[in-house]
Input
Amino acid sequence: MKVSKRQLQTIIKEEKRKLLSEQGDNMYLEALNTVAVSSNECLESLDIAARDIGPSDKALYDKMDDAMVVLEDLINLAHQALENADMMSKGAV
Output
């Protein structure tokens, strides 16, 4: 089978588009995973800090609790997005 220069260019453009699309999805998934892991590490650090500082100002503990709630929400959102992306890649959605 002979392929013209124009056909070859079209094939190359299509393959490049597919490759960039796949890389974009992977970058998105990697970013979500990084968010989940980093947030979890921050949450663990805050938990340790809360135990290590001993008796302190109630306002400080309240701020730390608020930060922990936000981090837990962020972790949950990242995990949900990862699960949705996984289901979409498997064609379940």
Summary: The chain has one domain: 24-89. The mean pLDDT is 77.
